Amino acid sequence: MDSDNGVEGQRIASSMSDHVQLLLDLNQKNLDGQMDGTPMSEHQVAILKRALAAGGRVSRADYEQAWASYRQCIVDKGYAAPPVMKVGEFYQAQWSMASVEGQEAREEKLREDDMACGKSEMLNVNEVYQRQHSNPALYRNPSEGVVDCLHRNNLVKASYTAKEYDEENCRFDKYWNDRRMGRAPTIAETHGHFSFDYSDVDAATCLANNHEAMDVQECKPPEWKLFG
């Protein structure tokens, strides 16, 4: 199965250790001026080096510390600490980005500061921690990561594939767009459209940690044979 995310089974690295080393190498190139980007703080680098020594795994304590450092960075820039939502055992920042007339410049500054703090203090650690739990095989295609995670949590039948997941995703996307509701569906409204229960916290974690949402897949009916 070819897709925009690569050939089926393709990995982003051969192991979690190799993936962590790549992140450290890219950061060093940022520091050396070979690449443009926000370098990681010493705290985040230290966490990744500890992960490298532990076989590419970030500890829970270090994951918590990275998020605490990110929130403190935001506070140091003059904002209130961002609210955080928990999905299972994982965190997501919950900024309110609703546009307010006359506040566009302030909102843009908030986005820039938030991204700078995330890159400096937390994002790479967060990504490694999510992958080690929800995509340890390091599949490049998010759909394969989602389905592997669903299988490991016994949430789908053994024969369930990434292609089936994409097809269900696309069918639901078309169904929801045809209703023209103008809003995101609730969990209850997904029932009966997927081979797993979206209300299950482990399923939500599989989706969130593989950066997969119901409307991400580009649906191409002739290619995917959605309608039988």
Attribute tags:
228 residues; mainly alpha; two-stranded antiparallel ribbon; 9 helices; 2 strands; globular; disordered C terminus
H/E series? HHHEEHHHHHH
Spans where pLDDT lies below 50 across 5 or more residues: 212-217, 221-228
User: Oligomeric status of the shown chains?
Assistant: single chain
- Shape assignment: globular
- First-to-last CA distance: 18 Å
Q: Helix coverage percent of residues?
A: 40-55%
Q: What is the topology, as strand order, of the major beta sheet?
A: 1-2
Q: What is the C-alpha radius of gyration, as a whole number of Å?
A: 19 Å
Structural class: mainly alpha
Q: How many beta-strand elements?
A: 2
Structural features, described:
By secondary structure, this protein is mostly helical. Helices cover 51% and strands 4% of the residues. The protein contains 9 helices and 2 strands; from the N terminus they run αααββαααααα. The chain has helices at 16-31, 42-53, 60-76, 104-121, 123-134, 142-152, 162-179, 201-209, 221-224, and strands spanning 84-87, 90-93. The protein has a two-stranded antiparallel sheet. A hairpin with a 2-residue loop joins β1 and β2. α3 packs antiparallel against α5 (123-134) and α6 (142-152) runs antiparallel to α8.
